[in-house]
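Sequence only, no structure available. Ideas?
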Amino acid sequence: MAVALAAWEAVRQPSANGLDPQTVLDVLRHGIEDPELRRAFDAASISIGRGESASSYLQGLGIMGEVGGYMGHTVPAAVYCWLRWPGNFRKAVEEAVLLGGDTDTVGFLTGCLAGASAGPSSIPVEWVHGLLSWPRSEAWMRRLARRLGTLA
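Reply:
I predicted one. Tokens follow.
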């Protein structure tokens, strides 16, 4: 539910229009029932306000070392990276991956949220051109994205 709410906010208030991390965190805190995630988003609000690194934020939550695959770790880590560097797809995803551990999940979630709010042009060109998904090409992925966008 937290990821769905975050994605909705990413589209509702895109980075180009001045994404407000505190507003997003308020929506998340009020839209979910899980007390652990609520505490994590309360802490995120404070850490973002202080300009803390993602690893410092996670240490404050008691997550030491690499991020595990538990949703109570991956979701706060991804949301934090997205909101800490709104509009900067590269920085958000790189910081997510540098946390270590379940990097594919945290990087994926961060990239989805950052891309939804900052748009496809925010994805570094060399990352797009470096996609290795044979037999599918970049053009195939763009066509799929356009088709999926018309379903919404």
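The two ends are 18 Å apart (CA to CA).
Hope that gets you unstuck.
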